[in-house]
Amino acid sequence: MRVLLPLEPLDQTTRQTTADGAPAVEVLSAEKVFANGARGLAPIDLSIADGEFLTLIGPSGCGKSTLLKLIANLIEPSDGRLLWWRGDFAQVGQEGRRLAFVFQEPTLMPWARVEANVRLPLEFGNMPRATADPKVAEAIARVGLSKFNRHFPRQLSGGMKMRVSIARALVTDPNLLLMDEPFGALDEFTRNKLDDDLVNLSWERKLTTVFVTHSIYEAVFLSTRIIVMAANPGRIFRTMTIDQPQPRDQGFRDSPKFAVYCRELSTWLAEASLQSAGGGVS
Ligand SMILES: Nc1ncnc2c1ncn2[C@@H]1O[C@H](COP(=O)(O)OP(=O)(O)OP(=O)(O)O)[C@@H](O)[C@H]1O
Ligand SMILES: [Mg+2]
Question: How far is the CA of 142 from the centre of ligand 1 (A)?
């Protein structure tokens, strides 16, 4: 495992792998130019290690969602390519190589109860009810909503709906979890609570997570590595490793180190915003 000084920036093309395994995702000079000619992302090189909690942060329009969608194979790069567990996307979905996406909006079916919403991805996979039901119950329990499994989304708070959305991702037993500003619309207290759960969850399940946020505190609390992006064109600006033990708790939030990371990240974000407004890399 790499040991780095807490605030040492990494080269943007740095490859990170666990000692015993291939990276979960490799982004190899992938860039994105949209049909209207807009340049969403300049060529990106990035390697995401198995078990890593990687956060993308940066000013609006810097390409965070575009990069996440490339990793989810929801869009294709205009040039360059991506590898998942050293192979192409065709083998994603196999045992040990499953991917799930959590969007900013919970995107639940309003007419279906919590349990039916969570069961949906298993139904898409034609899993028999007898096999699916215990998995659904376990995923709902994991997000603390067992008492609400017969509720409809309209009967739940924003934070609870987000939990349902996370349970719906967990039920597929993913290895790679992609989350685009999942807690952006929630109050800080609820967000902290969900962050606490997410830290434990990724640790327990050995998830590889790619997370997008605008919150410096959330990024520092959750991540093993943070990528600061800049815009015009979207690119990696700097990388920060948060070399702190996992799983983390309130003690980390209250520690002087946490404040140091946040201050440094805040400075980098300000620089990234300036560069974005300036329109390009020198
Ligand atoms: N489908 C599209 N067609 C054209 N341009 C697009 C498309 N999607 C994104 N873009 C452009 O690509 C750039 C990156 O967009 P993206 O949504 O990835 O940014 P972001 O970092 O996620 O921003 P935010 O923080 O506001 O969510 C922006 O300039 C955006 O306008
Ligand atoms: Mg976005």
Answer: 33
